[in-house]
Design goal:
about 350 residues, alpha/beta, Rossmann fold, 2 domains, six-stranded parallel β-sheet, about 20% strand
């Protein structure tokens, strides 16, 4: 495109007696002025775009918390610690998932739902995690790191476990037997779960090792209930009738008392009954002298540790985190049950 067209300039605009050369001078002068204007504009400072306002808040990280049915006593403890953590860190939010029924199927369905959510990490408080290895692994593969509380499943790809050591629970149960069994009844009926499950295997090994160190008691019979609550009840009833003079019935988990209203004593009246577990029903059985000791742990400390861990996992700041946070066992006998009930209430009561 031409800046100027000399043929378009009227003749009267040229000086009289002028020539084509003078016309060119006018054109060159005008062209020079135009170039000068352009260069002046280029040297001017560029217009600055408005600066973005600093972000008022970093992105919120969501962590899923899966627990038992709504009436379980652990929920006030979970909510208490969540309130403290959310007050201290407004970038983490916990999303609660209460199981509709206390079954492996309900836990599997809940974990599948969480896999489709925007939660970055998951904490699970449930004994049914041993039945949900595939679901835990799928969560991990999809980028949602998993923390287990209370019940471990080391065969899964869980990131962290917070709770009691299974081998320590087994040793504690053996210590109770050694202390409480009468000298005339030095035999033990031992109920355990699947030895292929690492938690069951660890409790079984811990119990046997501790009993062997003492050297005074004999395992009269082992009962493998295969982690089936119905089978556990059936076996206890039958063995109690067949062997009423066994010194102690030891159950390395609470299978026989899980999800069932038990109206009769499942073990012989003169035998010591020891259960690894803790629930409202077990504490009621302690009061009625139908069991003699439960092996528990500080649930509040384990829940708090699990929530702190899952919060860090959700925010991706857990590079140096431990894979296990162990809580020591607590022995609760008949005379301790009221104090233990008060302990549970204190765990779930705001400070």
């Amino acid at each position: 495109m031409k800046l100027f067209d000399t043929h378009a300039i009227p003749a009267h605009r040229f000086p009289r007696g002028g020539s084509i050369g003078r016309a060119r001078q006018y054109v060159y002068s005008a062209f020079a002025i135009t170039l000068l204007f352009c260069f002046s504009a280029c040297d001017a400072p560029p217009r600055r775009s408005p600066e973005r306002a600093p972000s008022q808040r970093a992105g919120v990280h969501k962590a899923a918390v899966v627990g038992p049915t709504v009436e379980h006593m652990v929920w006030p403890i979970i909510r208490k610690h969540i309130a403290k953590l959310e007050a201290a860190d407004d970038n983490t939010r916990f999303v609660l998932y209460e199981l509709a029924t206390d079954t492996p199927l309900a836990l599997r369905q809940t974990l599948s739902d969480i896999d489709q959510s925007d939660c970055a990490a998951v904490m699970i408080y449930s004994p049914w995690v041993v039945n949900c290895v595939d679901e835990i692994d799928r969560l991990t593969i999809s980028g949602k790191r998993v923390t287990l509380v209370g019940t471990d499943e080391p065969r899964s790809r869980r990131a962290v476990y917070c709770g009691p050591s299974n081998s320590e629970l087994g040793r504690a149960a053996a210590d109770v037997c050694i202390e409480m069994i009468a000298e005339s009844r030095q035999t033990v009926m031992l109920m355990h779960g699947k030895p292929s499950f690492p938690p069951s295997a660890a409790r079984l090994t811990g119990f046997k090792d501790q009993l062997e160190r003492a050297g005074a008691l004999e395992i009269f019979k082992e009962l493998n209930c295969k982690d089936d609550p119905i089978e556990a009840q059936r076996m206890l009833r039958r063995q109690s009738r067949l062997y009423p003079r066994v010194g102690a019935f030891v159950m390395l988990d609470d299978w026989a008392f899980r999800n069932f209203e038990v109206d009769e004593r499942l073990t012989p009246a003169e035998a010591i009954a020891v259960v690894c577990g803790d629930s409202v029903q077990l504490r009621a059985l302690l009061r009625r002298h139908e069991i003699d000791c439960i092996i528990s742990y500080n649930v509040s400390k384990s829940v708090e540790a699990g929530l702190r861990v899952v919060s860090r996992l959700a925010s991706d700041t857990a590079d140096e985190i431990l894979t296990e946070v162990i809580t020591p066992p607590i022995l609760v006998k008949m005379n301790d049950v009221d104090a233990h009930e008060a302990r549970w209430k204190a765990w779930g009561t705001s400070d």
